[in-house]
Amino acid sequence: MVDLAVDFGMINADNIEQLKKINEACFPVTYKPSFYDDMAKKQDENLCKFAYFNGFAVGAICTRIEAIPDCPGRNRIYIMTLGVLAAYRNHGIGSKLVSSVLDYIESEKNGKFSTVDEIMLHVQTSNVDAINFYEGKFGFRKGELVENYYKRIDPPHCYILRKEISR
Amino acid sequence: MTTTTTAAADAAFIDNNPQAGQGRPLPKKESDLFKNVVKFYESKQYKKGIKAADAILKRYPNHGETLCMKGLIVNAMANAAVVFFAQQGGGGGGDGDGAGAGVDKKKEAVELVKKGLMMDMRSHVCWHVYGLLHRSSQNYTEAIKAYKQALRIDSSNLQILRDLGLLQIQMRDLHGFRDTRLKILTLRPNSKVHWLTYAVAVHVTGDANGAVGVLDSYMDTLDKDCVEFQRNFEASELAMYKNWVLAESTTTTTIPPTGDAAAASVAGQEDNEPNDGLGGIRKALCHLDEIDHIVVDRTGFLMTKLSYQLQLGQFDGAKETVSSLFERGLTEDYRVHGAYMCALLKCDKATCREVEKLKGMSTLATLRPLSEDERAILLSAYYGASGGGGGGEEDDGFAKASANGKDGTINGDSTTTMSGLASTFPRSMAIKRIYLTLLSPGCNQFKWAIDQYCRRQIIKGVPSLGSDLSSLYLVEEKLQAGTSYEFTRYRLAKDPIDIKAHAVYSVLVELVDAYIVSLESDGTFPDDTTKHPPSALVWAWYLRSVLYEQAAEYGPAISLINKCIDHTPTAVDFYELKSRVLESGGDIQLAADVVNAGRDLDHQDRYINNLATKTLLRAGREDEATKCIALFARHEAPVEQNLYDMQCTWFELELADCLRRRGALGRSLRKYMAVIKHYEVFHEDQFDFHMYCIRKVTLRSYCKLLKFEDELWGLPIYGRAAEEIIRIHLSLIANDANAKTGDEPDYSGMTPAERKKAKNIARKKKKALTDGGSGSGGGSDTTSKNMNAKNGAKTKSKPHAIDEDPEGNELLSLDHLDEAKKFAAVLVRHAPRRISAWALQFDVSIRRGKVLLALQALFKMKSIDSDDHGLFSRIVEFSQYMSLRTSQSNSAADHVLSSEFPKLMNNETLAGFVKMAMEAVKADSRSSLPMRIAVARAMLAANLGCSTEAASLILSSKLNVRGVTVESCREALAFMDALGPDGNDSKNQMMMLITTKFPFAKDFGK
Predict the structure, then answer these.
(1) d(Cα B859, Cα B881) in Å, to the nearest integer?
(2) How far apart are CA B789 and CA B674, in angstroms?
(3) B105 lies in some domain
(4) Which CATH number covers residue B42?
(5) Does the record carry Ribonucleoprotein as a key word (chain B) (predicted)?
(6) Hey, are the CB atoms on B533 and A91 less than 8 Å from each other?
(7) How many domains does chain B have?
(8) The last residue of a domain, from among B137, B171, B205
(9) pLDDT by residue (tens digit) across A48-106?
(10) Which residues are CB-neighbours of B674 under 8 A, at least 6 positions away?
(11) Does residue B606 sit at the A interface (CB-CB below 8 Å)?
(12) Which of A10, B26, B140, B578 lies at 20 to 30 Å from B993 by C-alpha?
């Protein structure tokens, strides 16, 4: 499959509904309104963005900076959602979204993100495609298993995937 | 207003005025004070002005000019106060006070000026001020009279002359305007503006030769090295204007006889200056060469040249001009293509003019059918001699594969090289689009070309592709059939039934179905190996859904568009289409929900926001709609106020429709009236241009503006508003008659004398109501129907006058028949090709008992569309009306009626006429649903057949006929309802047909 040329665009209060549409189409879980309310607030457009193809948003990535528990002053980038509409998958759009965030972190690792040590996410244990995607393409490593992370889907367990930032 | 510059100076003039001793002439001190009053007025220092005026009046309380000036200042302050309060907005309780104070002040101003004038009738200052006062309350006729009176006293007062001229052109007193401007020019012959204005004034009276003379005289006054002869904007505009006027001029005296070398060399090789009415154009074409070096509007220059060349039959020259235009980048301008085709086919003058007026993507090829020879000529010019030139597009890789073996040669002299426009301008979309119109829809080449075109647009993702292609559904129509002038023109098929039967439609359906199969299986187009992105499939579905929509197949359209939404739920266009299909399919509520969901995708998209507003209003959800539109309105003022200020007519019309459907007729009328007022403002806006345009020498645009303003009341939006106003008033008359409240007397049963009396009473009632709120001096001039409605001088003052009556009770209390009559008269005068306008003119006239006007309206309708169902039912109505009418003594009218009306009925009796219509309907399997309903009604009215027979006329359509919409189906049901128990069976059958045709229809049968 050929890669599709995509543009990135910011997520804001005016177009938040498109994120909702993409997420509803991509994920088995439903995100709370508060998730979208937060996303609608002014976000760093390098960390949260849409991928546009041919004029329409067909995928989105949402990440945030959060503190690493028990490590005062140290932070990580947490990938909350990464979704591409089914019809547009296998065209390299997800990779482009992830790369663009990773590249941004890399470029700022000694500046804005000097306190950031790793990038991490949760992935459902059954989601082999996603695990292969992160491990194979971006060098994430499978971490601990979190039991009963999800409430309404089966299996309810997830792995943590993480990638350390080398300095 | 700087209109009284000279007033102070002139006031010092001494004449033997009987007011001598009353301060005439004023002593030095007061005379200086008076000059100050004028100065203060002009610099808008009104309070100081009043103070100075009071100082004079203290010594000379009866000094007329001071009283007038004081009145003028008070008037200006009143206007300013109203504007001020209007700008405060808010709609709160304070407004009434502000506006009220303004009205009081205005009264005071009028009294002061009148008193001043009485004191000094021989002062031109007083008359001038009196005129200015009238002008400020839009009472132009009175103002002109006052100015003329002032000029009788001081005939060479430049300022008053100028003011008079302005009003004359505004009121289109063209000859008066010309005379006034001549006077000004005579007084100040060294001003360019005065020369130009006089030239325009002569031109607008229709005297093109005279205008040329004026312009020539002006040019003669200039030095040869003057800036007017150099290349700059003003000189260029002036030259092009002169050229324009020249083209309109005639050549009886001025053109030299044949043999004049200069003229003959340019004006055409073979012509010997025949007397064909083209002399002006020949001269203008020569003149173009003379001004070539100073004209900066190169496109305008070339377009003008092209038009002249075509009219003169200089086709080779025209082709060269077209080449220059294409080189300038006008390849996407369909007007140029239209002209090019005329040149290629050597069309006659009339056809060239017709093509020149075409709009949008229309060209000669979509105006009338082309012969095979003509097609061949055009194809060779556009795509080289061998037809399948589309293969020259290097970027369309897929084109090659499918092109193989499909391009049949269409003419003998085929050359192998690509020589047409398509190869010269490979990136021009217009040329690709025009190719489709040059081929006959039956041939393989057409299928190939439209295939390429669709593929390209689907890959790009062009939402408008479906409507773009719909302009290819052309059907031939014979005009003036049966006469020796018979000719054929293309008409666009719009009804789903006709579209479905169209050859182009079948080609499209076949193509797109094949695309979908192929794209669904492996992402390629048929007979092609290139894989396309997922968007290609979704746009193919989308196009197919649009095609279903065009054929009124709502069920399949919805299932496909749902697939699109599932595929790409972030694409706003899909929601738009779904909403549109739901709306025509009968579920307006869901349509509104869907478009609203689409709107939520992007709150910064004004287009979808407006669409959502419109659909919500159609669904009767006024509050939601207002909130929706408010997102894009300014927030200082209430939304409706803001949209009024923005002259947002589409919203006001939709809101008015919504209110009308709900029965809130007063508020609805107010909204329709708001649209009418906008048009009055558009008309008023001319004032800004009379002086400005001439100063800037944009004379061509100015003349076009004057023409536009003349045609203003014929524009469709105005027509919609006016028609609905008429309909509401007519329905109110019917209501009143039903209720028999006696509130609105039924004039039709009265003798003329009684009617006049009753109307006078009604008018007095009305006057008492309106006088409370307006300060207008009662412009009673019937020629300017817009005068009465106008109140404040500045537009800003108007909305608040309206807001005092939010429910529109004032409008409801007007004399309904008078109002309806007024608007119908405007419509038929300015939009005489609008069949619905004549229909309403008939409805109004018959209620007024004006049978001859009604008869005229019927004949007009017949001349526009003799198959119109509204015409048919009105002929039946008229015939019934006439049979009840007792012949009156007015024998001339009766004579006309008895000799003319039978022509409308084909000299048949009513029964015979209806029978003919019945047979005509039965004979044409597509005859429209509204026509069937009209004939069914007429059958019952004429006692022809039973109700089942009448109903069967409708049922036999199976709804596979023209004119099947939710509305017409509703009307059909209403007809069956009216049949009572006899109609139950028919009604049930009808319901079954409707549910099949409109699977989403919700509220039928309720």
Answers:
(1) 17
(2) 11
(3) yes
(4) 1.25.40.10
(5) no
(6) yes
(7) 2
(8) B171
(9) 999 999 999 999 999 999 999 989 999 999 999 999 999 999 999 999 999 999 999 99
(10) B644, B652, B802
(11) no
(12) B578
